[in-house]
């Protein structure tokens, strides 16, 4: 389907890919045959590939480019910090100013009472840190048996061994003998896909009650924590029914276990609030962060920890965990500049008041399309369910790869939308304008039409 390559450099890069590179989450052999699309530059919400095509990036990279591409202030912050102090570690009772200043700024933005941050290089490392920290916490409290972490099927918590184990992607578990011991999963609150004949509200209660079932099955004395994304991102922008989080909060209040919010996607404004936990009124003990923290300009993640947990950790001596790049000064300087822009330009407030309502209203207009079973969204997150039958929610056979057909049409038509099975998802930069939203939705409609036509042949 893709157009023939014109630029000789494209062919060279594709040969390098085939001969030397192993790409993440890819079929190596298939990619070697086909060759990757080469992205060479970006500005605002647009990317350009090596063939000169302009593409509207409705995924903000991988959910991360909150402030859009091309902000020179971040490059300048990195350059200044590299010249002043490119690296020093935070081990052995030393520290560097950007990491400390960043920890303070994050504490100002985080929910009340969450005033400490452990820095990592990525979201996965943030969740590895969480796993070790919650077990250490319970050991300090004299309850070393509280080790089990309850997570959700089809949740995504990263791709390290702990991250993929916490995640509930069974195709990830199949490789590498995962999950590791001490991690168990409960069903997800995905009404459209799994709610059957139940109403969304009843299904939300049912899905939340699975947490209580699991706590009782494993035994409260063995459970360390429950981890969940406020809205599942990689699983397909799964927005729980309104009944879900209130019921989860009721259950968590009954049992002595920690609550961890994986805010790697929802954090830093994606829902129109600073954190997804603010959006839902949840009060976690810990929050994993990454992605929007630096708008993806440089890798960085972390774990925000509530004061009462820190009080206990303070009694526990050394925490034997950390990374060479924990609190990396250049990453921290870039994150500080990113957060300054998000705050001073009122970007999160604008998302909430103007652009997210506009995006959601515009996306809803696609619900009348014959292929579309549901359009849902919160803030700058959206999902479009592709179905064979709008009323029964019946899918096309997976062998038809409807989502992939649609994704290819998007690529060909200058729009990046991702396909999770037959769910098309978007997560554009938070700075997307109303005119750019119009373009996004009109391109999406064109691609839905082309997909519908392709299915008739
Ligand atoms: C992306 C993601 C992660 C993993 O972050 P990496 O930086 O890729 O390690 C963890 N949790 C959620 C919710 C994510 O979306």
Helix count equals: 17
The parts where pLDDT drops under 50 for at least 5 residues are: none
| Share of helical residues | 40-55%
Computed over alpha carbons, the radius of gyration is 22 Å
Ligands bound to this protein structure: pyridoxal-5'-phosphate
Q: Mean pLDDT across all residues, rounded? A: 97
> Structural class of the helices, strands and pairings?
alpha/beta
Estimate the strand proportion: 15-25%
Distance between the termini: 15 Å
How does the overall form come out from the CA principal axes? Answer: globular
- Order the strands across the largest sheet as they lie in space: 4-10-9-8-7-5-6
| Overall number of strands | 15
GO molecular function, one term: transaminase activity
InterPro entries: Aminotrans_3, Aminotrans_3_PPA_site, PyrdxlP-dep_Trfase, PyrdxlP-dep_Trfase_major, PyrdxlP-dep_Trfase_small
Keywords: Aminotransferase, Pyridoxal phosphate, Transferase
Cofactor: pyridoxal 5'-phosphate
Write up this protein.
This protein is of the alpha/beta class. Helices cover about 40% and strands about 15% of the residues. It has 17 helices and 15 strands. A hairpin with a 2-residue loop joins strand 14 (about 420) and strand 15. Helix 1 (about 10-20) packs antiparallel against helix 2 (about 30-35), helix 4 packs antiparallel against helix 14 and helix 5 (about 95-110) packs parallel to helix 14. The chain is globular. The two termini are about 15 Å apart. The relative contact order is 0.14. The mean pLDDT is about 95. The site of pyridoxal-5'-phosphate (PLP) has 14 residues, from helix 6. The site of pyridoxal-5'-phosphate has 14 residues, from helix 6.
